[in-house]
Amino acid sequence: LSGLDPAQPYFQDTPTEVRLDRSDADFVDVIHTDIAPTIPNLGFGISTAIGHIDFYPNGGREMPGCEKNPVSQIVDLDGIWEGTRDFVACNHLRSYKYYSDSILYPDGFLGYPCASYDLFQSGNCFPCPKEGCPNMGHYADKFKNKIKNDFQKLYLNTGEARDFPLWRYKVTVTLSGKSKVRGYVNVALYGSGGNTKQYQITKGTLQPDNTYTAYIDAEINVGELTKVKFLWNNNWINPTLPKLGAATITVEAGQNR
User: Fold this and answer.
1) Residue among 193, 192, 185 at smallest CA distance from 229
2) For residue 163, what is the DSSP state?
């Protein structure tokens, strides 16, 4: 059984006979996309973990792309009816959109086991454990026999619009150069599965020999890594023409380390 943002009003904290529960099937997976309190946030989804595995994409509260202004949302690419529904219940309805996208991406929507979304965002729950990470949505049941804990909360990030899946990488850059400068460092990944856009690794004071780490959620699975593009910029003209390079760049993929 897959729960697509099961309802919160009248169901949260009720007995298991009343609401969806892990006892309802051999395997129950749940996608939570709208767990903010009903008052004042109009959250429609149940917040508690109620399945064998519970996914909280983007933390489960605010889905990327749902904060668009009402006019652009109602006059939507999918038509006025779809746009109006999205304006009223965008976060809630993301659950079925993620599910339908997951059918097309058997390797996408990896959920990382973690105590909280904040810890996931800061990289504390990266990479996947030895048994791997389950895929949110259609292929979640591939993980059925690997569950260790009674309740497993899983976190991941998604895109703002279709296609929704993102793939998480840890990028570590050690800088080389003669003197520190101010600016930013961007990195793009190239691989057998395609190329990503540029992602910012750090900004501010750039110190040669220092190491900087960022967790990026890329729009594609790059597959076998073939090349990394490194770019830095200081955003203003410096007459001393400082030079900065990368001594080393390490890329770690979440799904297979």
Assistant:
1) 185
2) S
* Residue that the structure tokens 């129950």 belong to: 28
Closest CA to 140 of 98, 169, 173: 98
- Taken in order 43, 33, 66, 199, the sign of the CA dihedral is positive
Contact predicate 188/171, CB 8 Å: no
Give dist(CA 122, CA 155) in Å, integer. Answer: 12
Q: Kindly state the tokens that stand for 102.
A: 């997951």
**Residue whose tokens read 């746009």:** 83
Type of residue numbered 250: T
Q: Using CA atoms, how far apart are residues 215 and 172, in angstroms rounded to an integer?
A: 9
Could you give all domains of the chain from N- to C-terminal order, each with its CATH number?
1-165 (3.40.50.1820), 167-253 (2.60.60.20)
Distance, CA of 42 to CA of 35 (rounded, Å): 9
Both tokens of 224, joined, read 């076998």
The segment with the largest mean pLDDT, out of 43-47, 148-152, 223-227, is 223-227
Mean pLDDT, range 234-245, rounded to an integer: 76
Q: What are the beta bridge partners of residue 115?
A: none
Residue 170 has pLDDT above 90, yes or no: yes
Question: How far is Cα 32 from Cα 63, in angstroms, rounded to an integer?
Answer: 10
Nearest to 65 by CA among 157, 130, 3, 145: 157
Cβ atoms of 83 and 73 within 8 Å: the answer is yes
Q: Are strands 211-218 and 167-177 parallel, antiparallel or unpaired?
A: antiparallel
